[in-house]
Amino acid sequence: MIFTAENVLLVGSILLFVSIVVGKTGYRFGVPTLLLFLMVGMAFGSDGLGLQFHNVQEAQFIGMVALSIILFSGGMDTKISEIKPIVWPGIVLSTAGVLLTAIFTGLFIWWLSGMSWTNIHLPLITSLLLASTMSSTDSASVFAILRSQKMNLKYNLRPMLELESGSNDPMAYMLTIVLIQFIQSSSMGVGQIIGSFLIQFIVGAAAGYLLGRLAILMLNRLNIDNQALYPILLLSFVFFTFSITDLLNGNGYLAVYIAGMMVGNAKIQKRREIYTFIDGLTWLFQIIMFLCLGLLVNPHEMLNVAAVALLIGIFMILIGRPLSVFLCLLPFGKRITTKSRLFVSWVGLRGAVPIIFATYPVVEEVPGADVIFNIVFFITIVSLVVQGTTVSKAARMLGLSTPLEKTGNDFGVELPDEIDSDLRDMTVTEEILAKGDTLKEMNLPKGTLVMIVKRGDEFLIPNGTLKLHVGDKLLLISEKSKKTEEA
User: What is the C-alpha separation between 136 and 361, in angstroms, rounded?
Assistant: First the structure.
């Protein structure tokens, strides 16, 4: 079947429905949801049910839009207070770590290309280009796996991994673009390459900061009658930030991530509505992106490079990534334990980002681009299967996982940021009832009130004479403590 205006909605709706159902099933067995989305696309593609989607430019555009939203969402969820203790290790991993991974893996691919038994023959620069496209950890995969498995990690590892995965795509993107330019025009000097890197980083960081501040100002100053328009206003800032930064020769991916951090760590109007909208949109575009990439690939072509791709994938997982991580974290000494370094090495997940970056050589018609794309796709599947399904097991084996702290309350009630109060729930026990079975006999702390009592499926409005039972749940509201505010 070829996509037309008449059937695209029908096919799209079926793909989305199947992806969600399959993702829900796979989640129970610990299979990464994003891998299943990719598999659904492959199952419906040219080697499966026969859907024909071969437009690399369209896939690249969809990936660019999706990554902008995913990175902005990741930035919003990155709390500055949490990343402060690990900001420098995270930055080193997202820059030098990506560069070292690309160099080590690229040299291995070049060495492999020289073997008589191999079926790929790539020159050094093309080998480095192949390694660069998959040198960063995939933000969508890392965010999705860490959050879906509800992992709580020791030693600030979770914010460090999220900071690294959210901020290392720009480095891989720049390496990919620079190497493509070098292959097409060998006249580029070292000075030009370094200058290009500096401009992209400086302009990207500055644009992200300034436009993030502007987005906060607009959200808080514009008095919009329709609350549903606040998230749409923010979405327009996401796309504007990426586009204008790219026009200024900065790195748009870095800009949207920093802008997301600015917005996520500021007091803004309609925060709950904005977070709900952005979270839903992020999942939608993750599904669309993985489905499109699954449709784009021809699985039978991957079989031709499967053996070589498997060797490269094993090298990256067991040697390239760990060696880069250990070298990057050497300056931080005992601050980061050996077990932490091993775990960070293992969570070097590849996902949609390397596949999207692998489309750039195809679009630019770089010699060997098809081989690059198929190898990257195969390694992504290997990474998601091997690493994605074992992240939680690795954390437990290394003794790095801790019980997840409870957030929110069982009533599903939230307060706007403007209300300076805390909500929590509490279950009535026999010990509590021993002191009295009514609210006025409970002797609650000063400044704490009971808003609702939940008894089974029934919700009761409390009063001083209401008789409490064992198992009743109370929704408590109290003033925020000074200690909490200072933190």
Answer: 17
Please choose, from the candidates 363, 206, 350, the residue with its C-alpha nearest in 3D space to the C-alpha of residue 296: 363
Q: Are 343 and 329 in contact (CB under 8 A)?
A: no
- How high is the mean pLDDT in each 10-residue block of the chain (487 residues)? 65 80 64 76 77 81 89 86 86 92 94 84 91 83 63 78 82 88 74 80 92 92 84 92 91 90 87 86 85 83 87 94 93 87 88 86 88 91 85 84 62 64 78 76 75 81 78 79 42
Q: Cα(457)–Cα(476) distance, rounded to whole angstroms?
A: 18
Cβ neighbours for 130, distance < 8 A, ≥ 6 positions apart: 106, 109, 122, 371, 372, 375, 376
Residues 6+ apart with CB under 8 A from 393: none
Q: In whole angstroms, what is the distance from residue 305 CA to residue 14 CA?
A: 31
CA atoms of 164 and 168, how far apart (whole Å): 6
Distance CA 87, CA 446 (A): 39
Of 285, 236, 283, 234, the closest CA to residue 262 belongs to 234
Query: Both tokens of residue 300?
Result: 């039978």
> Which has the closest alpha carbon to 245: 282, 281, 209?
209
